Amino acid sequence: MSPTNTLASATSPYLRQHADNPVHWQQWGPDALAMAAERDVPILLSVGYAACHWCHVMAHESFADGEVAAAMNADFVCIKVDREERPDIDAVYMNATVALTGQGGWPMTCFLTPDGRPFFCGTYYPKPQFLQLLAAVSETWRTRRADVEQAGERIAGELRSMSTGLPRGGPAVQAETCDNAVAALLADEDRANGGFGRAPKFPPSALLEALLRNHERTGTPTPLATVTRACDAMARGGLYDQLAGGFARYSVDSAWVVPHFEKMLYDNALLLRVYAHWARRTADPLARRVAGETAHFLLEELRRDAMLVSSLDADAAGREGLTYVWTPGQLREVLGEGDGRWAAELFDVTDTGTFEGGTSVLQLRADPDDTARFDAVRTVLRAARQTRPQPGRDDKVVTAWNGLAITALAEAAFALGQPELLSAAIECARAITSLHVVDGRLRRASLGGVVGESAAILEDHAALATGLLTLHQATGERAWLDAATALLDVALDHFADPDQPGRWFDVADDAEQLMLRPADPLDGATPSGASLMAEALQLAAHLASGERARRYAAAAESTLSSAAVLLTRAPRSAGHWLAVAESAVRGPIQIAVACEAPDSELLAAARALAPGGAIVVGGPADSAEFLLDRPRVDGRDAAYVCRGRTCDLPVTSVEDLAAALGPSV
């Protein structure tokens, strides 16, 4: 039977977008690999994701084109992969692409031998070049097969040698390690524009969280000033949606003016956490507003069936940014002459424009004095924008990203005084743990209530465990602790390297075996699975009890020690590691509040004053492991502040608690 396009049955919206292509796309799996072996032809692997602009461009130019499809179908088995659903496959072949070309990106285009070894890799190709490439690869496969096989074996061997992870062992992370890493980061800041590096510029969420924690530990003002510059610049530029909240994935320029317009769940979850902590620490009005609007964006635009879906597209009706950009005339048409001119000046919308065709991305360089007019104008513009073509939405639910959002929503609930955010986090966690745990094992993703076959990876276990541990602290419910420790036990049994304590593989030992087993410790757009696991283990070590707690503590220590070399040599790629390390060198701080009422003033103060990464548990004495033998004092609520396994005497006033939680250096 001749192959046909099989993507209509996929659980990935990205794959379904290609179900009508004339290309005979296959989903990754043993059947597709067997087909390549039986036909004795190379595999053409195309990897992308639903919100990717250039993925759409290549799909329109090439994959929907009959001439290109005929060439692909004739000489290749064509496999389409959603990088968000199968990050393990993406990681393996992105390493190959970067090794062979010096750069990566999506769509990723790789040519493989039938057993999966890459021999030629690239990213986006316009149609003419792609047709030439297809012909050249096909000719080479027919006439120089031995050379292709040798190249594939050599590349596979080099990739395996590169995938050894961090060096074995490492010194314990000390305060000096953190301070040196922070000094290196501060020296690398773009002080003119905020953030780090040049265009394209991505939100440095994990780095900002780490700098906040360093400031809270040391009292040094410089890290906080760096956070303030970055957060202010991102929130006032085009990266932030000035009408409806939420951040785009990155800025194409160094000043945060023009975004690449897709909005990702993971970015907004990580940035919500940063802005909530910035608001908690400083009470800055911009921080509070942006954190609140970002949370609202998550719950209004990305929530489906209590869970959060993956992304909004960069494009609408085939044009990038169409939904979001404005001209002065459009503002006047919607708002009238007076408000239109006022809005154009306020949002920096000019006749010249900042984007294509003289349009402008809205910016807000300063909050206006007339807040009522500001709110009214934004309401009208939001309504008008809804009448435009809207970006596509990837409704796939990814476990790890929901875990990040659960943590951020719960922490933002206390930082902003918005308990409805905690309720949303609880509902999300209930839905995820109900749907994505199948026969005791976690799955990566679902679509429309149907869970996919892809096994969860390390980041899924770690991010969700951290979210559940955050809910355990927020609610006192034992079920969240039990669910989190079950995930951590699976991770320790199936993802930890038994031969090298502190090293983690990104895929389980009983998952599908690819060309190599990824083990990438570097933090990127999202924290690495290993650094997320360090955070989860650090929390669980102090919330669990007995042998389990000791096992978590040992794993947390070895995991963090393994990253000391990253913190020393490459702190820009170790933002989340640094955030976890900042907590670790303080103990981490744990606060047990013995109280009878859930609305205890002292418990609320503990949650407001606790530095990032601290552990806060409250309730009646002996109601949780951390509250054993910690009663109220003289009929008053009492807070017990501990660092590691050493605890101070209890305090009963907010003032004394604040003093106990001050900088430690």
UniProtKB/TrEMBL annotation:
Domain Spermatogenesis-associated protein 20-like TRX, residue spans: 4-159
GO biological process, one term: carbohydrate metabolic process
CDD domains registered for this protein in UniProt: SSP411 (cd02955)
Gene3D superfamilies reported for this sequence: Glutaredoxin
The protein, known as: Thioredoxin domain protein
